[in-house]
Description:
- It is a single chain.
- It is built from 18 helices and 12 strands.
- By secondary structure, it is an alpha/beta fold.
- An 8-stranded parallel β-sheet has the order 9-6-3-2-1-12-11-10. Strands 5-4-7-8 form a 4-stranded antiparallel β-sheet, with no helix packed on it.
- The two termini are 26 Å apart.
- Pfam families: Glyco_hydro_77.
- GO terms for molecular function: 4-alpha-glucanotransferase activity.
Amino acid sequence: MLVRSSGLLLHPTSLPSPFGVGDIGPTAYRWVDTLAAMKQSWWQILPLGPTGFGDSPYQSFSAFAGNVNLLSPELLERDGLLPASAWSGRWFPDEHFDSVNVVPFKAGLLQQAWQHFHAGHAPKLRTLFEEYCHREQQWLDDYALFMAVRTELKAVPLVKWPADLIRREPKVLQAAKAKLRNEIELHQFCQFLFDRQWTALRAYAAAKKIRIIGDIPIFVSGDSADVWANPKLFLVDGLCKPSVVAGVPPDYFSADGQHWGNPIYDWKAMHAEGYAWWIARVRQTLKQVDLIRLDHFRGFAQAWHIPAADTNARNGKWVDGPGRKLFDAIQARLGSLPFIAEDLGVITPDVDSLRESLGLPGMRVLQFALDTPKNQYLPCNYVPDTIAYTGTHDNDTTVGWWRTLNGHDQTMVGEYIGHWVHEPAWEMMRLAWGSVAKIAVAPVQDVIAVGSEGRMNVPGKAAGNWKWRMRWADLPFGSVDRVADLTMRFNRVPAEPKLSKV
């Protein structure tokens, strides 16, 4: 059961780091310490999977694997897998994710780590690695083979693979496994390292009383191990080509709608298997986080099916999803539904009914509140079973948003607050923290009060997203104490549980 609390949104790729992208090493531990000093209860992140097209965490090569670009070279050194000389003399920009240079650099480090491990270094990890491979075999073997084959084929997408490989013909698979054995084991090893580093970080966060809000994208990438290994669970043909793809119709974010391009589930086939794939996916995610934001919750009621040949999302139609049958199956196997429903956009009564029947909190974003006094995103209209956000990764930063408002809208915000707005980011945080919502969350960009240059994602824009990174020097002097004071003032520091006397 959720208690009154608050947190900050910062994806690990946005953490400070000398390696061109944030990672889950020493600076992540410092970030957890910072959250604790700010009296926060939650660290919200984006999906942790390996990123595909456009570096998007919502276009992943696997719904089960971890993003190895997040691995910390410093922690690999501590494990005896790399010497510090492996990265000495390298320099990367610290204000954005330099993926063009960072991805091959990280891949090279992991190749060296694998070679050291294969040569007998870090022998204490051998048994742990073998146990991990056995425990995660259900998804790990297919993922490692998929990535090895994809590399062998010069990173061409799944639908352009040789037909016999797409169809997973046994003889062809056996030949690929024999030829690519070393590369397959490398990918397995990298996933072991990710599990090792993330598990340790999560345990440290728990010790500091920081829980993690994760994220499950509703759909998976067409270029993924998930589709290749389970084509019958998706609306694709025998060569993994989709007949329809996912997105949303024209809305607040885009006049043409959003054409995501992901294949859509065959929910009848999922139901016939007892939703086993989804249950396994949720179980895997709960190994990494404490609470899960369900991306595009309305897609479980109805999804926007776009003809695969279309280039925009205008010509789609709504098609029924699984409804609560999926969630009943998850609850029957896992015992609870630790979800936040991302119910933004145009939400119909059937979506509200599904969320309410499941007892899931929805989301309220302050940037959507410029409307009538009855607008559900105004704090005066919140219900307690809500997660309040100043903005999300899909919004502009609060400062950037504020600068786009005309004088009338800025005046309207000031009248709601009760005075002219001098610090829009902090005023929006104050509104969220002071609301009745169970949890209040702000992107760290609002603590920093950065403008549009700090925006993480522009929906519908294919390139240039997911790049922003924080620097420790960006945190204004006194901001840690200021967040802590705000959190205490609005009673968002959960009380310590009282121990009963024996």
